[in-house]
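Per your request, structure below.
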């Protein structure tokens, strides 16, 4: 019995010794995977952080994500092609108005150059006339057809001739009434002079005054659509929203491009018309003096 107890005690002591010897190994095996896990976590972390950086660095990918199109070089032509239909109509209308303004400029410059040249020749010939009949002959010559001053001289001399043909004494008792009728005929021609010379001025005034507002309408409409697109795409990336806003602003630029020359041309031709009107007023006085002189001479 004692031998059995001794044997059990020895077996227990041996088991305890085996357990104590094996416990450090188990502890070491259990702790070993931890660094591997940390290393894996450290390795995977940069991959997670890299994704937003790549997305932020590529605006085209953002545009694709929100359903937009990538934009290359932004030029006026590309902005026009990408603009909406309403903005395109505004731009085309303003460009057509600008073209007409330049056409009017060229036409009226040629018109005024020819008008002044013909007027100079007419005045030179008119001042060499020796009678009312000579004045009428010069004024009705084909060379001066359509010249406002020639038309004034023709109207005045015709009135004197009509009074003479009616049996009135234009060199005697009816002299003053004949000069009054001639003056009235000259004034009638002068009243239509401004209308003859101001052709196209109303168009230039309209383009100059309304062009910027028409362009602004196109800009407001385009910017409104751009903000609607921003709300729908849920992005404020400038690479996505800037082209649409630039297209809208182009409409205002074209409006100013059409309006500024139109205003300059309008003011320039107003000055030329006023100068010719002053010249016609001076000729009217010269014409009536010449007719009065010839009537005093009995011509």
């Amino acid at each position: 019995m004692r031998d059995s107890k001794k044997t059990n005690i020895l077996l227990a002591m041996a088991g305890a010794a085996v357990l104590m010897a094996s416990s450090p190994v188990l502890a070491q095996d259990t702790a070993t995977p931890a660094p591997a896990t940390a290393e894996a976590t450290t390795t995977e972390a940069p991959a997670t952080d890299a994704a937003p950086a790549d997305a932020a660095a590529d605006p085209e990918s953002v545009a694709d994500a929100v359903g937009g199109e990538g934009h290359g070089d932004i030029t006026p032509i590309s902005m026009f092609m990408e603009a909406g239909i309403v903005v395109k109509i505004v731009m085309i209308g303003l460009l057509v108005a600008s073209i007409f303004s330049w056409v009017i400029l060229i036409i009226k410059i040629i018109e005024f150059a020819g008008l002044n040249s013909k007027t100079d020749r007419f005045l030179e010939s008119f001042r060499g006339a020796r009678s009312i009949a000579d004045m009428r002959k010069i004024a009705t010559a084909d060379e001066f057809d359509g010249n406002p001053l020639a038309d004034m001289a023709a109207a005045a001399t015709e009135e004197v001739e009509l009074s003479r043909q009616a049996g009135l004494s234009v060199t005697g008792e009816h002299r003053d009434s004949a000069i009054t009728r001639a003056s009235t005929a000259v004034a009638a021609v002068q009243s239509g002079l401004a209308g003859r010379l101001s052709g196209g001025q109303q168009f230039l005034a309209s383009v100059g005054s309304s062009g910027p507002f028409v362009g602004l309408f196109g800009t407001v409409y385009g910017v409104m659509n751009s903000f609607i697109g921003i709300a729908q795409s849920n992005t404020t990336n400038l690479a996505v929203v800037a082209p649409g806003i630039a297209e809208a602003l182009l409409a205002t630029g074209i409006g100013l491009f059409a309006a500024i020359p139109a205003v300059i041309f309008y003011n320039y031709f107003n000055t030329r018309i006023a100068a010719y009107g002053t010249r016609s007023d001076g000729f009217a006085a010269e014409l009536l003096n010449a007719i009065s002189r010839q009537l005093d001479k009995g011509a």
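Residues 80-297 form one domain.

Regards,
D.
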